[in-house]
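User: Teach me something about this protein's shape.
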Amino acid sequence: MANDLIMLDEAKYMAEVVNLVLDDGTPQGLTVANIPNWVGVAVSSPRNLLDRLRTRPEIHRAGIYFLAGPDPEIDGAMHTYIGQGDVIWDRIAKHHKDKDFWNIVIGVSTKTAEINLDKGHMGYLEALAIGEAKNLGRATLNQNSPKVPKLDEATHIYMDTFYDKMKKLLSILGYPYLNPILEEIPSGDGDMGHVFVIDSKGVKARSIQNNAGLVVLKGSQASKKDTPSWTNAKSLRNRLIQEGALKDIGEYLVFTRNVVFNSASQAANVVLARQSPGPREWKDSKTGETYKEIFSKLIDD
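Assistant: First, the predicted structure itself:
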């Protein structure tokens, strides 16, 4: 079943058509996505449908692929692996045997075999994707950052366009790890909707809720003083410190970038370094209403 999805390109404020083919008629199954008048195509599949994915011609071409699933070592974090292959399927089949964490795979190749990605193209896409995923920190990666290959000017422009369109398809297919959580955040609350704050235990933090989750904003503070019984999200806090997303500045930790959390409680746990009822801890910066009260009213209305 084919659907046309009209998507707003927020950077240019221009509508763009994306074609989606739902292999079994449901969004939970294998999905093929492409943009008209573009040579690329993306195929997304849950791990339990690899037998079906194997029949798709796109996955037997050269391209780049993305594995994603829960991080097995860090509670509440997602993990990803990004690779390339002359035949994408061969790489996926290998990772099915040697990597346990992933539950979804997306392969990006070309619509026809007559137009193919070469080693330089794939190396460029892979290097950009790994670098951006590491920089954004929306998922963990345990792989080295390859150098970006040098391309001639025309090929460079061509592959930058390919990369931008690929990112749009990846986000639609449930892989948001190459997209910023938020655009630039104004210093004040502006027109951001509900801005939630925590001002407790000697720290102050700001957050907003969006489609990605609860986003704690850059510049927010987090406590260094762990409660002895605290365990929930502690490994996540330690990972953020290791990555540099939380920086020790002496009295407390500070967020060096916007960080998305799966829930209000997970975010509050990291900010306060203790087990915390997040929906009650986070309060609207203007009205003082709790996160729970605000979203309960939305449901009741």
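Now, about its shape. Helices lie at 50-53, 88-98, 119-136, 153-172, 234-243, 264-272, 278-281, 291-300. Residues 196-300 form one domain. If you'd like, I can walk through any region in more detail.
User: That's plenty for now, thanks!
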